[in-house]
Amino acid sequence: MTQQYPDFRSERRAGVLLHITSLPGTGNTGDLGSEAFHFINFLADCGMTWWQMLPIGPPQGGLSPYQTSSAHAGNPQLISLETLVNSGWLNQDALIDSLDHTAKKALLQQAYRGFNIKATIAERTEFNIFCANHAYWLEDYVLFRAISEQRQKSWWQWPKGLRTREKRALTQARDKLLDALNYIRWEQFIFFQQWTALHHHAATVGVRLFGDMPIFVAYDSAEVWARPQDFDLNPDGSLRVVAGVPPDYFSATGQRWGNPLYHWEQLEKSQFRFWIDRIRTQLKLFDLIRIDHFRGFEAYWEIPATEEYAIQGEWVKAGGDALFAALHREFGDLPLIAEDLGVITAEVDELRRKYQLPGMKVLQFAFDGSNDNIHLPSYHTQDSVVYTGTHDNDTTCGWYESLTPESRHYVYEYLGNPNEAMPWVFIRTAFASVANLAIIPLQDLLGLDGQHRMNLPGTSDGNWQWRFSWSQVDAELPARLRYLIKLYGRAAQDHTA
């Protein structure tokens, strides 16, 4: 039977953009514990229907959620230790503040030992069922990670037998790393178990989860190691070309992301198994999924791996049409949003419309002085998601403060010289838009300046670390939002699951 998804294309709704790591609480990052449940209750109180977040996979050294070691696995740092204590597998004294990555992993391993000692037959059965149901990605991931942690090297630096996945070498590795493999399986079991509980709670109060799926995967990832034929690599597995974008709003020299690009001909020969598996996992986690860098499905910016800067790249046609046709054959009408920002051609827009994927409008991009700018409210369409800004933008207050007096005047003149100050004039504009879905970053709802932005594209330091505090939330905020959401027809009529 075809899975049913929320009617996101016709409902007028509103939501908040906040990554889970930005939640408050003990430890060095937000997680899936009580603060996540509290935040969902807060959204429901505000009349918000959607919680949009960034990718939730295990990030690599730079903490970017867009560079992860797996296209399927959850970030174990998001596991709630509090919940593990409540399960009886971890001692209460584990709940201390400022845990770094290493310290939290040690506590997770302690909880794993507690599970092995105290878990009931039903809990062990649930674990085994999880491993069986997720084997299509889990087994490659746990072996990849166990070998990575044992050798402390990237997969292309492993001995040849492991690097090229020779059967004998992999069998020996599984035998030698048996306990590590079981621990990593358990870690993912706990992540998905906690996620499912959060997702269920959200549904009971009328909040839906809106995920974000990067188009590319990291070079040092389980997928590139396990399925190198799906990627445009040299015969020895080294990078031939890498992903990025040409000069744009964020960078005068473009952005060199460094991800491997796809071997589209091989993907099609495999009937897009890589993407079908990936979408299947995401649909277990989210009610709606934003596909990052949608334009890369029509044509992508190919940069020779030897080039230091993205400006040396070129556009190359992709196989997105065949991919989305295959996805529709497999899943039917999918709950996908296209991140169609950047250099968007008629061909990219045609691909998006062919598969009825809503695009994005960003108010911070609208006021460049061009009266035909597609981000201006007068050009919005119902099949859009409107944002004041995204995780890559400055906060709206920070953005507005950076404008010249002439630009500030133009913004207010266009919007009819409203009496409200920023960011609320933008929040109201987003809610008033004909776009069916309006998403506001939490920083804007809190009126925060540019010191609170999440990411500055093209830089590697200080990003992805912002967290909010409940002390920043005005007591009148829920009532103010409920009023605006009702005023502009974005209120859900029925908050039942």
TrEMBL record:
Query: What catalytic reaction does the record list?
Result: Transfers a segment of a (1->4)-alpha-D-glucan to a new position in an acceptor, which may be glucose or a (1->4)-alpha-D-glucan
Going by the UniProt record, its keywords in alphabetical order are: Carbohydrate metabolism, Glycosyltransferase, Transferase
Under Enzyme Commission nomenclature, its number is 2.4.1.25
Name its GO BP terms in alphabetical order.
carbohydrate metabolic process
* Main EC class the enzyme belongs to: transferase
Query: One GO molecular-function annotation for this sequence?
Result: 4-alpha-glucanotransferase activity
UniProt lists the family membership as follows: Belongs to the disproportionating enzyme family.
Q: What is the protein's given name?
A: 4-alpha-glucanotransferase
User: Which lineage?
Assistant: Bacteria, Pseudomonadati, Pseudomonadota, Gammaproteobacteria, Chromatiales
